[in-house]
Design goal:
Elements: H1 17-25, H2 33-42, E1 48-58, E2 61-70, E3 79-84, H3 91-103, H4 105-108, E4 113-117, H5 122-127, H6 149-160, E5 167-173, H7 177-190, E6 204-208, H8 214-224, E7 238-239, E8 242-243, E9 249-252, E10 268-274, H9 283-305
Helix pairs in contact: 3-9, 8-9
Length: 306
């Protein structure tokens, strides 16, 4: 565990408008949401109903927000939700959602209505950021009257269509930049002292402490272990500072913390976490792990719940 001082702001004092503007000026476009993501979505019109559910007006650019909906939506089938890119910098979450859509969603649509929002935070994707331009973390902002447009857009869509879900899986990564950039920035923004956590080497899930589902989480872990390794607990029996509840699984309070996993009232929810900086995993393997996680979740639902 190490402390790290962030170059913006005064220690012990939360950021104001000036500090947030200073932070924003340091951000730059590093990749293209339109080239990397929208082009793939546009290739899926023959397989899905593609809907634009909103748009974000950021830094002289407009980011349309898209979701993919399986065809022949049937009220007799349970609804499942797959989300990626809530933290735009977490690459395999976005591309794992798209890969699942391309490779497997049609097969599972015989049992489920599937809604896929592959990139919740396109500005974050382009600038490789955890936050949006207002230094707001979308994955702490899934709450009523959300200050994050990324969250409000998908929340409004689900509410306006009166969608209920039996399952929601949200695809994330834990990276070395969590310690080198994002946790120090968070502490500086909030006027707190940063203490880094141990970055786990491998895949793990975050279950909802408000609705524990150990068998569901195990099904995800068992599916992913066929693709990549599962993160071990650290010397304190924890992963990212939280007690390990079972192999590769920790718990957070989804709705209380405003996490994307609390977006719906689904009884079965999971947030996936892969480690793309591992010496034992490639970017492609991380994408495959995300796909395996979604498949493992759906197989559990198909065999144990339906």
């Amino acid at each position: 565990m190490t402390e790290q001082q962030y170059p913006i702001g005064t220690p012990g004092q939360p950021w104001g408008v000036e500090e947030k503007q200073q932070w924003l000026k340091q951000q730059s476009v590093k990749r293209s949401y339109f080239d990397d993501v929208v082009t793939q979505i546009n290739q899926l019109h023959d397989q899905f109903d593609v809907e634009q559910y909103g748009a974000l007006e950021y830094t002289n650019n407009t980011f349309p927000l898209f979701l993919l909906k399986t065809r022949q939506w049937d009220s007799a089938k349970p609804n499942v939700l797959v989300t990626g890119g809530v933290h735009g910098y977490e690459t395999s979450g976005v591309h794992g959602a798209l890969a699942f859509a391309k490779q497997h969603a049609e097969q599972y649509s015989q049992w489920f209505n599937i809604l896929i929002a592959p990139c919740i935070s396109p500005w974050g994707y382009e600038t490789i950021n955890r936050w949006n331009p207002f230094a707001i973390d979308p994955n702490r902002s899934f709450k009523e009257n959300s200050p994050a447009g990324e969250c409000a857009a998908i929340m409004d869509y689900i509410a306006s269509h009166q969608l209920d879900f039996v399952m929601h899986i949200d695809l994330h990564e834990t990276t070395d930049t969590d310690n080198s950039e994002f946790r120090p920035a968070l502490a500086a923004r909030d006027g707190k002292v940063n203490t880094n956590w141990n970055i786990p080497d491998g895949f793990y899930t975050v279950g909802n402490s408000e609705k524990p589902t150990p068998d569901f989480q195990k099904a995800i872990i068992d599916s992913v272990r066929q693709v990549t390794h599962i993160a071990p607990a650290d010397d304190e029996g924890k992963i990212i500072g939280a007690p390990v509840e079972q192999e590769g699984v920790i718990h957070y309070a989804g709705k209380e913390l405003g996490l994307c996993m609390g977006l719906t009232d689904a009884p079965y929810v999971s947030t996936t976490e892969v480690y793309p900086d591992s010496a034992n995993a490639s970017p492609e393997e991380c994408i495959e792990a995300q796909v395996a996680a979604v498949k493992g979740a759906l197989e559990y639902m198909r065999q144990a719940v339906i």
